[in-house]
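REQUEST FORM: STRUCTURE PREDICTION
Request ID: SP-0412
Submitted by: Lab K.M.
Chain count: 1
Length (residues): 326
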Amino acid sequence: MEESPKTLRYVDIGINLSDPMFSGTYHGKKAHECDLDDVIQRARDVGCEKFMVTGSDLVESEEAVKIAQNYRELIFLNYTGFTGFCYATVGVHPCQAKLFDEYPEGPAKMLEELRKLAIKSKESGLAVAFGEIGLDYDRLFHSAKEPQLKYFEAQLDLAIEIGMPLFLHSRAASEDFERLLAAKLPQLPKGGLVHSFTGTMEEMERLVALGVDIGVNGCSMKTEENLEVVKAIPLERLQIETDGPWCEIRPSHASAKFLTGAPELPKSVKKEKWQKGMMVKGRNEPVAIARVAHVIAAVKGISVDEVCEAAWNNSIRMFGLGLSSN
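STATUS: Completed
RESULT:
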């Protein structure tokens, strides 16, 4: 099932490039120099042509847009047909929902600031989705249910007003999540995607029935049950991601047995021993998207090319990313 990386192309629809780890800072301590350019180039070398940098609160959304802007202004050698490769999402993650009520000038002002950022960055072609928004009942110690529900719905309304597809998060909250989403989706022609999906077969089938795409990364394939869900995701609803610096495929995961023949990753070392050109142990990178695609193909019993082309077309159809969908 091996294919030359040159024949494959990827969109990493969920990559947290604003995370301090990609600047060499871990838990507030500087361990090595910023290697973000190298991280991106490694991914581009294996065919990752488009990146969607995740915004998870107002500040991080601004940073995601800034990263997209910075890389728009660079032209990489040996790359033709330049249309831009780095884009942002704008939104407030459910675990950060409490920030609305803590905003110094009040939640209405924060929503307005988010709205202005989304409109400006959409019009400039830098932001392509509203998110990461949704519900997370697994980690209610971050934000309680009430603010999550209130500001998920408020952000859905902003996405409808601005006309942006959704980049969604759902954990242990399927009933409320699907109820709120189903009421709004008819007003969003390009729909949305639930990223880093780890839900049940039934949840996946209900989301697909709603017309929502499913994002798959290493965390989506930890268990045998996860793999059965991935196997059943219709190709026309599949998108792929790494969610770096998290969600790497680990040796303990059920997916690891499908890595035979997968593209090798660059050498990784502990952060304290980092040298230029090396990956950092425990820090997932977008270069690993080739391995995600390989595992999905093996689980589904199809070629990696089929997985990549389907996911590529689905991502371009939904998010644009400077191209026209087929």
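NOTES: The chain is about 40% helix and 15% strand.
Reviewed by: T.R.
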